[in-house]
Amino acid sequence: MRVVLDTNVLVAGLRSNQGASFRLLRQMPLRRFHPQISVPLFLEYEAVLKRPDIGISLAPAEIDTILDIIAALSNPVRLHYLWRPILPDPADDMVLELAVASNSEVIVTFNIKDFSEAARFGIQVLTPRGFWLGLQETTQ
């Protein structure tokens, strides 16, 4: 299943090892889902994860290692057509563009209401917990 992980999912997963976001990050090497990545989204991941006020207690070198792993486990997608503007936030448009270009089935985010237009493209929008529960159902 092709999936786009919003930046807020990575932030939550690196802040705490207690939630669904952390579990999803831990599942990436098992290939139970296939994260999609574009250059703009990867650059946003890097910029946000390295902000000192974001609440992640990792050194920049550790964040670089995690980003390297995410890049290695993700499918790179070149964006040829920009769908902007569709959503109120340009950063969300970037996530939707990637989901459309990669034919992703799901966008995983905490901001479900911000992606109301994703349904127009046949893309489901789920919270990390909702996506995690769906993954659990498919393996039973």
What do you see in this structure?
The structure is a single chain. By secondary structure, the chain is α/β, with parallel strands linked by helices. It has one domain (2-138): 3-Layer(aba) Sandwich (Rossmann fold), CATH 3.40.50. It is 46% helix and 11% strand. It contains six helices and five strands. The chain has helices at 7-15, 20-27, 39-49, 60-73, 90-101, 128-138, and strands at residues 2-5, 34-37, 75-76, 106-108, 124-126. Helix 1 packs across helix 2 (20-27). The longest helix has 14 residues, at 60-73. The mean pLDDT is 92.
Quick structural gist:
The protein is α/β, with parallel strands linked by helices and 140 residues long. It has helices at 7-15, 20-27, 39-49, 60-73, 90-101, 128-138, and strands spanning 2-5, 34-37, 75-76, 106-108, 124-126. The chain is built from 6 helices and 5 strands.
